[in-house]
Q: What sequence folds into this?
């Protein structure tokens, strides 16, 4: 039985510490640059933990952990790519160049970095607009995930109130303390997540008799995955918890084409993660951040997936059921890990798990709020101030306290927008509930499809082509939108546009209809960039002139 | 622990793809730690 006093007490202490860190951030945030980049002097361990905890939200732990419980350990490749590509490659190959370029161009945000790299206002505002359209949905998904879990764990707390409390605590430190408060709270939340997952893994291993025994039982009972999984979760190609799905099957395409590749590669072009490279004082700080991030990711997502798979052993031994059936009759895979922990562990671990999930959700949410605020209050506002759409007295450069005020105001507005979107989605589950489930992969997908080719081009080309970058940005975004709305069955069903116009969920047949939009849009955007770059004579001539000069 | 070679199980897992996934998972984490230690005092900006 869960002790309410322990849970409420733990949550109140947690919230008080977050707000205190927000206060410390507020005291040292004096200008727009402090708010946007934490003074470009963040310690390495904070950068590493903040990068990891921003990347990993509740969905990554209970969503993909539940996926592993239902469809097996193949998803461990996602955790492996998260560390190898999302962290190690990202820091070594992207981090160093982004930090240097950001410093050289005096850029404070991801859209500003790429906009200034290409000397293109179009790129800057286009990227900011994509952020401001896509991120409120991502924020709403994280808000609803955290609030629903809070509401089911704390007796008498409605989801509506949980949404408000959750957003208010996060808003309190993001608006006042800017990126400094976001990153310091991220680090604390990251440490809490490591402690929580380590203890939960240790308890799980004692419950299932150790690693080899637990895996052996899963291998021996592989047929139960096929015979006992509820019909709506059965996918052709399932072979057991310790086996990868059959090559080319539906289960394989879903795992590789919609989870491992989009999320594993999509992470490279996330604005809220890229900006962290620019907060480092020097290259050394980035080197030193790498171990912190790597160990964090192993202990959160890596451990969550193992715990998910092994929950089947526990439920088979205690109830004679596989995890998806033990969780409840009409359950979703997201409930498996919470039900397993509630059923098998004592109240201290349950409380720690609640705080771990709150930390996971809040660390991601705070960075999303901050990125939206900077896109609106800095990128869009700065571009508007250059144009005649504003009266002359409002145009020109903006610095110091005035810039800080605009950033805080824009962050506040987009927190309210996110809260409204979350409230609407939660109360319209028939029409919009599915958006919550796919919002995270959608945002990862559109960022990678639209931004990744021009991001790579800006970092590695001596004379990047503005024309090629703008064309790639437009093609990546449009191709992603078209595939998402009219071809991908998973996304298309949720959006309903294809059904409304053509009467079907997808205009293409399997296996194309299972593919995530990124699998189509990213190669198209890359080809566009290469082709336009090859034909962009002006850019090549300028590069040649620069070489001879 | 079972034998690693000859199509046998490793820690109760018999699918090479899953075994490889775990090797990449732990190997990447170790690589992160080794990189951080080796380059602890090396400013990467100096390389350019």
A:
């Amino acid at each position: 039985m869960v002790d309410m006093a322990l849970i409420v007490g733990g949550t109140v202490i947690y919230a008080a510490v977050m707000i205190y860190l927000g206060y410390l951030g507020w005291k040292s945030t004096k200008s727009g640059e402090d708010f946007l980049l934490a003074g470009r002097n963040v310690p390495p361990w904070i950068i590493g933990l903040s990068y990891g905890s921003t990347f990993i939200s509740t969905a990554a732990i209970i969503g993909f952990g539940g996926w592993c419980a239902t469809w097996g350990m193949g998803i461990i490749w996602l955790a492996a790519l998260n560390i190898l590509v999302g962290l190690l490659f990202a820091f070594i190959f992207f981090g160093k160049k982004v930090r240097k370029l950001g410093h050289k161009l005096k850029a404070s945000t991801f859209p500003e970095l790429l906009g200034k790299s290409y000397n293109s206002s179009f790129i800057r505002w286009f990227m900011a607009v994509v952020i401001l359209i896509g991120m409120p949905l991502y924020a709403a998904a994280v808000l609803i995930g955290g609030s629903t879990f809070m509401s089911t764990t704390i007796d008498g707390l409605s989801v509506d109130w949980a949404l408000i409390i959750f957003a208010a605590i996060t808003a309190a430190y993001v608006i006042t303390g800017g990126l400094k408060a976001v990153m310091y709270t991220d680090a604390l939340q990251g440490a809490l997540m490591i402690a929580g997952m380590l203890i939960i893994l240790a308890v799980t291993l004692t419950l299932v008799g150790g690693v080899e025994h637990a895996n052996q039982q899963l291998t021996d009972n592989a047929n139960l995955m096929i015979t006992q999984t509820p019909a709506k979760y059965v996918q052709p190609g399932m072979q057991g918890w310790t086996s990868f799905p059959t090559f080319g099957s539906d289960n394989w395409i879903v795992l590789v084409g919609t989870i491992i590749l989009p999320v594993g590669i999509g992470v490279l072009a996330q604005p809220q993660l890229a900006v962290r490279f620019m907060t480092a004082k020097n290259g050394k700080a980035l080197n030193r951040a790498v171990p912190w991030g790597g160990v964090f990711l192993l202990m959160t997502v890596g451990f969550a997936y193992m715990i998910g798979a092994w929950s089947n052993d526990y439920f088979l031994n205690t109830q004679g059921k596989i995890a998806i059936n033990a969780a409840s009759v009409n359950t979703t895979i997201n409930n498996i890990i919470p039900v397993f922990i509630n059923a098998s562990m004592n109240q201290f671990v349950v409380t720690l798990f609640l705080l771990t999930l709150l930390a996971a959700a809040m660390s991601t949410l705070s960075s999303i709020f901050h990125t939206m605020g900077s896109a609106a209050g800095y990128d869009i506002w700065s571009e508007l101030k250059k144009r005649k759409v504003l009266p002359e007295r409002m145009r020109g450069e903006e610095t110091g306290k005035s810039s800080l005020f605009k950033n805080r105001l824009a962050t506040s507005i987009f927190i309210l927008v996110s809260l409204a979107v979350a409230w609407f989605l939660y109360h319209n589950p028939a029409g919009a509930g599915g958006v919550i489930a796919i919002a995270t992969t959608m945002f990862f997908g559109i960022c990678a499809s639209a931004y990744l080719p021009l991001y790579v081009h800006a970092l590695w080309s001596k004379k990047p082509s503005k024309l090629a970058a703008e064309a790639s940005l437009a093609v990546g975004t449009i191709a992603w939108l078209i595939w998402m709305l009219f071809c991908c069955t998973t996304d298309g069903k949720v959006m309903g546009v294809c059904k409304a116009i053509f009467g079907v969920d997808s205009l293409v047949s399997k296996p194309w209809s299972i593919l995530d939009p990124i699998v189509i849009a990213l190669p198209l955007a890359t080809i566009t960039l290469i082709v336009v770059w090859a034909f962009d004579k002006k850019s090549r001539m300028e590069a040649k002139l620069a070489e001879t000069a | 622990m079972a034998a690693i070679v000859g199509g046998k199980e490793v820690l109760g897992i018999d699918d090479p793809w899953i075994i490889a996934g775990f090797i990449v998972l732990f190997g990447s984490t170790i690589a992160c730690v080794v990189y951080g230690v080796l380059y602890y005092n090396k400013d990467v900006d100096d390389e350019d």
Notes: The mean pLDDT of chain A is 88. Chain A is about 80% helix and 0% strand.
